[in-house]
């Protein structure tokens, strides 16, 4: 009642505006919150605005191809649906709605450890040769973690993203102010801990995560699975270099959507730090680099691809689209990004993703504070 029609959503921010008014308050608080003063959360998006285009003219852009490959999988457009916990807070069907949207648009879905649907339900919802990845929170009990990883591999998951920016969950005050009631959110995979509901959703579900996880554990992960392993939440070039030494397949430059360390830098800024150093040392093909955080426009995706990312993760916009409109919302959000991307590739003078190069950007303003 009084809700804007789906067709009135013209960009990803519009879904957030609608979701804010239709979602239950604790659900809105959990999805929309960032850590502390939310400075990093805001910066994630605004960092893209400090990067300007240097478009090429008179390039034949009659046919534009925005498809690319991520970890060997061909996708329609260089984004994936990143892992976000508790899908049923926003939609009674939960994460499977995102599975269906990802299938329709031929993009990859990263399944969260803390999904509301069970892992198997989300895998069962996959269609045809659809590809899924798994986001992993590492349990203090490594046997539980090993089971989760090997089960995922057996069920066809094609990439393991170990979250490394959350030895403890950040303080999301908006979330903490609303008392968490997990009826309807139906958290899975937490190892059956007794849950303390007095500190918001994030605190309630995260007590099993192992804060002692360290570089020493990485060889063990490489030994228990053949899936490519990526570290999600890397924030400095030194750690990218270490990741290469460890033999992992990739990293996601990310600050967890601004939900962990406040005043951490945005993924796009870290990417601008990392890529020139990898190129200098001839390491750019040794590892796949992804970013996430604040991606809302196809121009944001294009900027990341120009700098050398293999793709970008998008989180909240699909949660908001799913909460406000269900699958048709997710479908429209993805289609809007595809339409924007084709148009902006034409305007920047690139007919395919490989044509996006660093010289098409002016990043002088992005690296000065
Ligand atoms: C997240 N994110 C996240 N990351 C992770 O590794 N495990 C998780 O369980 C979650 N859960 C989660 C819940 C919600 C509600 C949000 C918004 C985010 C972080 C997520 O994968 C990603 O890093 C950010 O969401 C990217 O930023 P945007 O696109 O939301 O701005």
Automatic annotation (TrEMBL):
Residues of the signal peptide: none
Transmembrane regions listed in the UniProt entry: none
GO molecular function: L-lactate dehydrogenase (cytochrome) activity
Top enzyme class: oxidoreductase
UniProt keyword annotations, A-Z: Heme, Iron, Metal-binding, Oxidoreductase
FMN hydroxy acid dehydrogenase domain location: 4-366
Cofactor: FMN
EC number: 1.1.2.3
Name recorded for this polypeptide: Cytochrome b2, mitochondrial
Organism: Knufia obscura
Complete-protein stretch covered: 111 to 479 of 507
């Amino acid at each position: 009642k009084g809700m804007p029609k789906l067709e009135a959503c013209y960009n990803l921010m519009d879904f957030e505006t609608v979701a804010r008014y239709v979602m239950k308050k604790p659900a809105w608080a959990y999805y929309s919150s960032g850590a502390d003063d939310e400075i990093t959360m805001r910066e994630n998006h605004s960092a893209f605005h400090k990067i300007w285009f240097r478009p090429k003219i008179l390039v034949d852009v009659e046919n534009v191809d925005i498809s690319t490959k991520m970890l060997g999988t061909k996708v329609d457009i260089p984004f994936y649906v990143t892992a976000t916990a508790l899908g049923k807070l926003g939609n009674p069907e939960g994460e499977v709605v995102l599975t269906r949207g990802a299938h329709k648009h031929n993009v990859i879905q990263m399944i969260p450890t803390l999904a509301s649907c069970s892992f198997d339900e989300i895998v069962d919802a996959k269609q045809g040769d659809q590809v899924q990845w798994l986001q992993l929170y590492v349990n203090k009990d490594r046997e539980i973690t090993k089971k989760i990883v090997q089960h995922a591999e057996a069920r066809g998951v094609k990439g393991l993203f170990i979250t490394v920016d959350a030895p403890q969950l950040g303080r999301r005050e908006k979330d903490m102010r609303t008392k968490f009631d997990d009826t309807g959110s139906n958290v899975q995979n937490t190892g059956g801990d007794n849950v303390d509901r007095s500190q918001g959703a994030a605190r309630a579900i995260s007590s099993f995560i192992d804060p002692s996880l360290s570089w020493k554990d990485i060889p063990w992960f490489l030994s228990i699975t053949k899936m490519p392993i990526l570290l999600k939440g890397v924030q400095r070039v030194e750690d990218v270099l270490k990741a290469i030494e460890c033999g992992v397949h990739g990293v996601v430059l990310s600050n967890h959507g601004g939900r962990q360390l406040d005043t951490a830098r945005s993924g796009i800024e870290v990417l601008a730090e990392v890529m020139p150093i990898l190129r200098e040392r001839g390491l750019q093909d040794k590892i796949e680099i992804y970013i996430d955080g604040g991606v809302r426009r196809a121009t944001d995706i294009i900027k990341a691809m120009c700098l050398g990312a293999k793709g970008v993760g998008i989180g909240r916009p699909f949660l908001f689209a799913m909460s406000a409109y269900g699958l048709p919302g997710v479908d429209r959000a993805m289609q809007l990004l595809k339409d924007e991307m084709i148009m902006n590739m034409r305007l920047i003078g690139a007919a395919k993703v490989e044509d996006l190069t660093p010289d098409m950007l002016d990043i002088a303003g992005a690296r000065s504070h």
